Amino acid sequence: MKAGSKFLNAVSAVALTAGIVVTGAGVSMLAGVAIAEAAVVSRIDVRGNSRVDASTVRGNLTITPGSSFNNNDIDESVKRLFATGLFSDVQIMVSGSALVVTVSENQVINQVVFNGNKKIKDVALRGVVQSRQLGAYNDLIIQADVQAIRDAYAAIGRSDAVVTTRVVPVEGGRVNLAFEINEGDRTKISSINFVGNQAFGDGRLSDVITTKRSGFLSFLSRKDVYDEDKLRADEELLRRFYYNRGYADFRVISSFAELDETNNEYVVTITVEEGERYVFGDVSIESTVPGIDSDSLKGLVETRSGAVYSAKDVEDTILAISDRVATQGYPFATITPRGDRDYTNRTISVVYLVDEGSRAYVERIEIRGNTRTRDYVIRREFDLSEGDAFNQVLVRRAKKRLEDLKFFSSVDISTQPGSQPDRVVLIVDVKDQSTGEFGVGGGYSNNGGFSASVDITERNFLGRGQFIRASVGGGEDTREYNLSFTEPYFLGYRLAAGFDVFKTKDSSYTGFEDETQGINLRIGAPITEEIYLSTAFKYSDTSYSGVTLANIASLPERNAVARTVANGGHQIGALSYTLTYNTLDDQKLPREGISARFTQEYAGLGFDSDYLKTTAKASYFRMISEQADMIGQLSVGGGHILSTSNNLRVFDHLFIGQETIRGFDNRGIGPRVFSGATNVGAAGGTTYFNGSAEVSAPMPLVSRDLGLRFNVFADAATLYGNDISAADFGGQTLVGNNMDWRASVGVGITWASPFGPLRVYYAEPVVKENYDDVKKFGFGASTRF
User: Are strands 27-29 and 87-95 parallel, antiparallel or unpaired?
Assistant: First the structure.
């Protein structure tokens, strides 16, 4: 098609009058022929075709017998014939009263094969190339296919892959097309160098960007694959990082990669100019919109005079003001921050201008680049749709939501003019990434021995945005099975509905086994961007096997257990709600922000248990040293359970251990039952409190590219207030039913490995009772697939 256009554009004005034959291959002169500027033919003859029907050729012409035509019609007809991809050459000429169309047909591809490929499978390469079985053989398309295959290999770090083609004729005018691939070696990144940075070291900036240096396990994570688009995205990540830490003048001078062909390795160099660090000066709001009072908006301002300048705080303020103004009936209002820099005092005064804004509407939203995630999963994160008023603030919010899903390695939203001056087209470009995880965990206790667990999680099931998880675990005497599913947009609304099915077995008691199974139904919805409300109904049924009076004689609360067994087991039906507050900057490795959770659960509803249980936990993260990437964390929590009828049943009490205070086993602290001098086991309590302090930093003397962090922590907790009646102990003794605190200190290592975050810790109890169950060592891991 390009060949035809090349010549037609040059000669179209004189083709007919000069008697020139317009062809796809070139221009040839016809002697003794003179054609008028407008001509009429009585028929159209098609020549040279063998497989393509003549009617197909005529159907792609703009010329019809009996109608006048000119050079423009000749031009358009040749273009259309080449656009079919069926022909390698096209000639159109007038011979008497006939229009003669002579074509040379492209060969037909009998089969497309790939040879030499191991890292990329055939099915993936077929999705990359345009050449198809029974399609036309076209040199231009095949050249594009070769480049597409090379690009696919470059995307997995094999930039030196060589791709050639081999054509084998077969009978019937067909050919077999083979792409011969030499995959070459992986192109690595030997080093990433930063130039011009003073406030933050190379290690800290390396944590910010997504491009990573090659390591011994990089072939699993693929983060060391050089990609120019990814490097451009890294520039933006660096800008955000500096802008949110006061460096408003920051800019990236250059970023490039040099390939050492000898070693097949890239050296990436990023040159920056940090500038000075600023704090906020005066902050005010001005409104030109009638009916909008500036003073009523001041409470929405996140930027405070004297605080370190942060572009994120400015954006959050714009979002808050925009929402408030829109609810007051001004959807087109724009909020523009105007900064006034004082270079001497290094302050930036900000005025938020509220204007009417121009009227514009969203004509359509185009989704591009998603190979796995469904379009509707992306569209539903927008608070606007086709026909709605265009609002840049809502677009930025949708971008943040899409990034927070962690379904995509990159998200970019741009705009294009629509069909009318007041119409805007939104272009959403995304790149899918792995969303599956395979996890293992385990530990060892002095009572229960070794324990282990395995789980499989998919956060974007079948590209529908659904969450599914299955896990199995246990130790020497226990087994646990769980299956969870969540639909984040139930019935098309922003309601996350799901269920959890679970089953546990415990044979740690002498001579018998208990088995619990049940289901948890839940639904939740966001109240604000930071606050989330969820509700749930839980049903569980515990049954027993192998029970005799002899083998429950030594159990804690043996009379209570005996009555439960006599009743055929224990059933719980409970309703609960949970409020969650989350401002963390990163869910995997938080450096700033708060995460808090408050839950109340009521059990009754005609089942065996009657209680009201309240639990709460809050964690605060803050950078101690940006330069050293040292993160501090403070956590507090507590819980209380209150019987709503008589005394609490034995199984309804609160039990805490290693998940709350490291260094102790499950059910490791709190009230216990003794039979004489024998420690029978944990009895549980009605109230607990806990606190924790932790500091983490990159592992010293180790490259930060390995993702190893060193943790130092201190935990404390107490559990007390057992509510079992004295008669239920049957002569046994309850001890530790007071507010005695336990404490532990420890160290740990966290590895952001290609398998996912892996954690190992050792905790030493420093305050404990001699009857507590200790578990000093623990580990856990999860991985993406």
Answer: unpaired
What distance in Å separates the CA atoms of residue 78 and residue 63, rounded to the nearest whole number?
Answer: 11
Is 592's pLDDT higher than 70?
Answer: yes
Residues 5 and 61 sit within 8 Å (Cβ to Cβ): no
In this predicted structure, what is the pLDDT of residue 21? 43
State whether CATH 3.10.20.310 applies to domain 361-432.
Answer: yes
**Over the range 155-184, which residues count as b (16 or more CB within 10 Å of their CB) and which as e?**
bbbbbbbebeeeeeeeeeebbebbbebebe
DSSP 8-class letter at 591: -
Model confidence pLDDT, tens digit, residues 171-227: 777 889 999 998 877 777 888 999 999 988 888 898 888 888 776 655 555 666 777
pLDDT in tens, 245-287: 999 999 999 998 888 877 778 899 999 999 999 999 999 999 8
- Detail the DSSP E strand segments found in 162-264: 162-170, 174-182, 188-195, 251-260
Does the domain at residues 108-182 carry the CATH identifier 3.10.20.310?
yes
**Average pLDDT over all residues of the chain:** 83
CA distances from residue 309 to 94, 277, 283, 348, 352 in whole angstroms, order as listed: 75, 8, 12, 8, 15
Task: Return the beta strands (E) in 325-384 as ranges.
Answer: 334-342, 347-355, 361-368
Q: pLDDT band at residue 22, thresholds of 50, 70 and 90?
A: very low
Terminal CA-CA length for the chain: 44
Q: Tell me the pLDDT tens digit for each residue of 651-695.
A: 789 999 888 999 998 888 999 888 777 777 788 899 999 999 999
Which residues on neighbouring strands pair with residue 571, listed in sequence order? 541
Question: Does the 436-784 domain belong in CATH 2.40.160.50?
Answer: yes
CATH no. for 2-105? 3.10.20.310
Distance of CA 609 to the CA centre of its chain: 40
Beta-bridge partner residues of 362: 424
**Percent with pLDDT over 70 in the chain:** 86
**b vs e for 722-731, b when ≥16 Cβ sit within 10 Å of the residue's Cβ?**
bbbeeebbbe
**CATH of the structural domain 279-355, one choice from 3.30.420.10, 3.10.20.310, 3.40.50.300, 3.40.50.720:** 3.10.20.310
- The CATH superfamily holding the domain 188-273 is membrane protein fhac (3.10.20.310)
Nearest to 769 by CA among 623, 637, 693, 669: 669
Domains 361-432 and 436-784 alike in fold:
no
- Predicted TM-score (pTM) of this structure: 0.67
Q: Where are the domains of the chain?
A: 2-105, 108-182, 188-273, 279-355, 361-432, 436-784
3-state secondary structure at position 156: coil
What are the b/e assignments for 578-604, b being 16+ CB within 10 Å?
bebbbebeeeebbbebebbbebebbbb
Residue type present at position 359 = R
Mind listing the pLDDT tens digit for each residue in 704-733? 777 789 999 999 999 999 887 655 666 678
Q: Are the beta carbons of 271 and 448 closer than 8 angstroms?
A: no
